Amino acid sequence: AITPACHAKGVLFPQSFALTASPGALRSYAKAYQDSWFKSLFVRKVDPRKDAHSHLLAKKEDNNLYKIQFHNVKPECLDAYNELCEDVLPSIHADPEYPCELVGTWNTWYGEQDQAVHLWRYRGGYPALTEVMNKLRQNKKFMDYRNERGKMLLSRRNQLLLEFSFWNEPVPRPGPNIYELRSYQLRPGTMIEWGNYWARAIEIRQQNQEAVGGFFSQIGSLYTVHHLWAYKDLQSRENTRNAAWQRDGWDEIVYYTVPLIQHMESRIMIPMKTSPLK
């Protein structure tokens, strides 16, 4: 849960926000906080729904399913692990027999150390995922890769995701870039509300082309949201994020979405050599 960090003019700031925000951002947050008590009296309640939030928030024009994998690698094995992945994963990505694509593959730079993150897209949803898994079991090179990979890992986990309808589909981009994966664990029952606010927020955050993709979990840790951003470097990230506070509506969106979050995490990631997202 988010814990209080400080008070200023009667405003209680979330700890992580207070420690990292610029003075201008803190002033904007304080103004939104002081003004919003009156606005909140008139905020429309989220209507009762009679359909799964996945049907309401996901893209209708395609049937894409995503899988994100987190591999925690033994520190002494990281270089060998990267070489193994670079030898095997692109061949699956390029083979038309497999209805899947490697969207991006990274090593964490800041955040959880000695970690690899892989993002796959399955065009055709769950049937495509099942087809790929069945074919890979018959692929000797892949099975050898899995066996060798298992010797290098401390732990691994994955999630199946859908993409938000209001985000662009992630496509290959030239580099060099660094990538930030911001992961939010929401309070159960708040996904629709989050989507309503971020459908507005993404318009503010598209101006520098930093938005790569937005996803929400279906299997694995539930009520999890992942936002993927691209920046030229850490200073560019700082400048871009600070600039958002100068745009109308951003402070209000932050104010109303912070209470929806139970936990949040940021990873700064560096693409592997064979990542389509450079």
From TrEMBL:
Entry's Gene Ontology BP terms: mitophagy
Residue ranges constituting the NIPSNAP domain according to the UniProt record: 179-276
Keywords attached to this entry: Autophagy, Mitochondrion, Transit peptide
Main location: mitochondrion
Listed InterPro entries: Dimeric_a/b-barrel (IPR011008), NIPSNAP (IPR012577), NipSnap_domain (IPR051557)
Cellular localisation: Mitochondrion matrix
Record field: transmembrane: none
Entry-linked PANTHER family: NIPSNAP-RELATED (PTHR21017), PROTEIN NIPSNAP HOMOLOG 2 (PTHR21017:SF14)
Family named by the database record: Belongs to the NipSnap family.
Function of the protein: Protein involved in mitophagy. Accumulates on the mitochondria surface in response to mitochondrial depolarization and acts as a 'eat me' signal by recruiting proteins involved in selective autophagy.
Name listed for the protein in its UniProt record: Nipsnap homolog 2
Organism annotation: Takifugu rubripes
Lineage: Eukaryota, Metazoa, Chordata, Craniata, Vertebrata
Gene name of the encoded protein: nipsnap2
